[in-house]
Design brief:
- There is one protein chain.
- The chain is built from 7 helices and 5 strands, in the order αααββαβββααα.
- The protein has helices spanning about 5-10, 10-20, 30-45, 80-90, 135-145, 145-160, 165-190, and strands at about 50-55, 70-75, 95-100, 105-110, 115-125.
- The chain has a 5-stranded mixed sheet.
- The longest helix is centred in the C-terminal third of the chain and has 24 residues, at about 165-190.
- The chain is globular.
Length: about 190
Amino acid sequence: MKMSDDLQRLTPEELGRLFPIEIAEPDDSWPDQFQAEKAKLERILGPLAKRIEHIGSTAVPGLAAKPTIDILIEIPGGARTAERIKDVMQAAGYLHMREQHEHLMFVRGYTRQGLAPRSFHVHMARKGQHKFWERVLFRDYLIEHPEIAAAYAALKYKLAVKFRYDRDGYTEAKTEFIVRFTALAVEEEQA
């Protein structure tokens, strides 16, 4: 049994215990970790990666975050493309987590002993075909509005205590904040 098969068989509760929600203080190495992983992904995917963005809290200077680098990759459409991407990514050691509504997700750095010192969430979607691309606007909004970023950090610290072993609950509890400020970011972008 491969490690990835083993992890995919865990229940949400078991995953929560193995990978608890922990918020880390800002780390100046996060952009460098992203750049190194981006270079690796460019080599692996070649022309299948049209654009690669650092998203999530680790992409916002000075923001506390779960120490996992979130990456968003623009990919071409098509079922054959998705199958090629899954084959290439899994061969390179990434664990395929989900595929829904033209969104692929892979992770790296998840082990039976917990998170590796460097871990990654890699989201893939066609541009304009998925709401994930609004995460770039949310990232930029937090960078441009440090007071909102500070409020987001405070919320994450609070939720990390409440949902320490409930990854889905933690994510769901942040959703209202993210939706509200993403809407403002979209308005600013369109103004």
